[in-house]
Amino acid sequence: MFWPDLASSHYAKKTLDWLTEQNIPFVPKKDNPPDIPQARLIEDFWSVLKRKVYEKGWEAQNEQQLIGRIKQKLEKVDILVVQSIILKVRHVLRQIEDNGSLSVKVYPSDPNSDEIFWTEGYGQLTKEGKNQLYELGQYLRRRYRKLLGDKYSPNKVYCRSTDTDRTLMSAQATLASLFPPDAGEIWNEDILWQPIPVHTVPGKYDFIIHHAASCSKYQAKLKNYMNTSPEVQQIYARYAHQFSYWSKMIGKKIETIFDIFFLSLPYWAEKAMESNGIMEYISQFSLQIEAATPQLARCKSSFLIKEILEHFTQKINKTLKPDRVFWLYSAHDLNIAHLLKSLGLFKLHFPCYGSSLHFELYKTNDNEHYFQLFYRQSNEEKPLPLSIPKCGEICHIDQFYAAYRAIIPSDFEKECS
User: Fold this and answer.
1) At what angle do helices 63-74 and 41-53 cross, to 10 degrees?
2) Distances (CA, A) of 96 to 4, 51, 165, 323, 416
3) Do 50 and 152 lie in a common domain?
4) One domain for residues 319 and 405
5) Residue ranges making up the domain that contains 338
């Protein structure tokens, strides 16, 4: 089976006729998704071959010389490398089936597109990331120790993660420092750690925090927004020249704002990625798009908001069972951006790794309840409460429901069918 990339030449009539004459089965263009280059064998193979062809700074003087060089280097590609590329595809496709397209995206001319350049693998949690999440757990312990106590209890704490390797690992790193075992919980003298459950569901069924669940109504609303939003159209018009230039540099046409994903910084990208530059602006703007209107927010981030408010309401009414005091959601930068945008609080920025949003429920001496929202970025010890539009820094649940009725969804099936 020939699985080409989406270069127009690969689907030209002459090419398709030749494949048919040679009895070579191929993936039809309509079945060849544009956003999963990591899954295509050809992408990895091109990367290996390209390094061999241009090793030691070699340059072709003409087309025939290049063709000869490619043929020469093709014969020297290790068969074990090819077999490794083939074996990896099944795993990648299964991951895409469960979670949607991979969050790390590469482009044809990316010098670091081969997974061998990624010590932990595509989209995995790095050593620095593990430390950042471990530090977050220490912070949560300092902030909520009186509420949580010193020992972990499933009747007090519930942790949920998206079904993605790095968020599951992030949750584990955070919980490791949030609940280090005390003397009575140590089960191995050599390991000062205790296992704590992290719950998840496959991405295609997760509409609370992963958003990979199929929602046709949402996709229609998003498409309409992208086609009619003055802000989006202004970006396309104002930066058409840059889009054309970047497309040339990456070897793939940039068609939408969502295509602005870069993993490495060759000379042209370093200039484009300068602080407060065009690419930074477009990338930051893209974070908010999927929750840019109440209709979009209602089908995206608001299922999580609804779940949090339901927990608060049950807690106030003393109907929460188990009567937990702490929910931890391990998710993505997009979750933070979408939630802030839904509440009218998003300002263009990239959420820091290990940043966190805190919904906190309080009870006054008069037995009244309210909640506050905090956004901790970097290593802030005492983040200030955010002033929620139409609600303020101190927000009563009834007041919130009245102000944000337009974004609070019913159930998933009704919202998406």
Assistant:
1) 110
2) 18, 27, 12, 36, 21
3) no
4) yes
5) 129-211+295-416
Collapse the DSSP code of 136 into the 3-class scheme (helix H, G, I; strand E, B; otherwise coil) and give the result: helix
Q: What is the pLDDT of residue 83?
A: 73
From 149, 217, 218, 143, select the one nearest 180 (Cα to Cα).
149
Residues 41 and 90 in one domain: yes
* Residue 16 to residues 39, 156, 413, Cα–Cα distance (Å): 22, 61, 41
**Are residues 412 and 313 located together in one domain of the fold?**
yes
CA 77 to chain centroid, in Å, comes to 34
Structure-token match 């230039």, residue found = 245
Domains identified in the chain, total number: 2
Same domain, 102 and 134: no
Fill in the DSSP letter of residue 403: H
The Cα 100–Cα 398 span in angstroms is 36
Residue 163 lies in a domain: yes
CA within 13 Å, CB half, 366:
2
Alpha-carbon distance of 254 to 282, in angstroms, equals 12
Does 104 lie in the same domain as 142? no
Please report which helix (H) or strand (E) contains residue 157, including its range: strand 157-161
Model confidence pLDDT, tens digit, residues 345-399: 999 998 999 999 999 999 999 999 999 999 999 788 999 999 999 999 999 999 9
Q: H or E segment at 99?
A: helix 79-99
Neighbours of 85 (CB within 10 A): 19
**One domain, residues 59 and 164:** no
Boundary of a domain, candidates 46, 80, 112: 112
Closest CA to 142 of 385, 405, 380, 392: 380
Domain boundary among 79, 112, 145: 112
DSSP class of 392: B
The CATH number that applies at residue 333 is 3.40.50.1240
405: closest CA among 288, 290, 319, 309?
A: 309
Whether 411 maps to a domain, the answer reads: yes
Q: Taking all residues of the chain, what is their mean pLDDT, rounded to a whole number? A: 86
What is the enclosing helix (H) or strand (E) of 336?
helix 333-342
Return the sign of the alpha-carbon dihedral for residues 109, 115, 120, 121: positive
The answer, yes or no, to whether residue 282 has pLDDT greater than 90, is no
pLDDT in tens, 229-275: 999 999 999 999 988 888 887 777 888 888 775 434 555 565 666 67
pTM score, whole prediction: 0.73
